[in-house]
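Collaborator request log, item 7. Partner lab (contact: R.S.) asked for a structural prediction of Aminoglycoside phosphotransferase family protein to inform their binding assays.
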Amino acid sequence: MDEVEVIVAHSERATLRVGEVFVKVDGHLTRHAAEVRAMDLASIPTPEVLWHEPPALARAAVPGTALGVLGAPSEASPASWSAAGRVIRRLHEAPLPPMPGRPLAGVEAELERESEWLLAHSPLPAEVVQRNREIARGALRPWRPAFIHGDLQITHVFVEDDEVTGIIDWSEGAPGDAMFDLAILTLGQEERLEDLLAGYGTDVDREAIRAWWSLRCLTAARWLFEHGFDPDAPGCEYAVLRARMREEA
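Returned to partner:
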């Protein structure tokens, strides 16, 4: 029997690996059902579901390697990023899934609430939070809903020989803003945006992507802190917020 490897663990969920099987345990008993449904509906490569018995979901390992790791420059080739762009475009053009998306008013309320928390509790200078808050409001515009992954981190996209072999972790799959997916994938990897768009297509709202970079970092920081992660680690959320302010100065 292979050893059990803990991939990620916090108070909401945990993911374990045993050989070529990944087992996710989630305290939210309906979230796995939504994830399986999203993978069934997606028109792109996804992991094989081996079994689902709440609160656990087992899936097969995806071949290849992730586009990169959080907090470090991606070593994947431009061709791999372009391949990711093509696959994500297919997803965004697929029929909308039946799951509810996040309402714009809810996103706006979260931005304001989390920005106030950062002003009161984070080591970031107030001007960094306030400037990013202004930038983030650029994402708060009406969007044409697309089928989005919803948590398209760089660690969730696997490639091999410059082709996408699978995209994992679909618990946030729902109708939403396509620019959000593109922003999450390039968060902390902003220099790879053009490689991604070489495959996705350049008919995108770059300002909205940049706004989502700021919005994501502002709204994710407290959750990371409360679940044992460090948003101030090199290359992570606070670093992105500082960089965004310098770029927009």
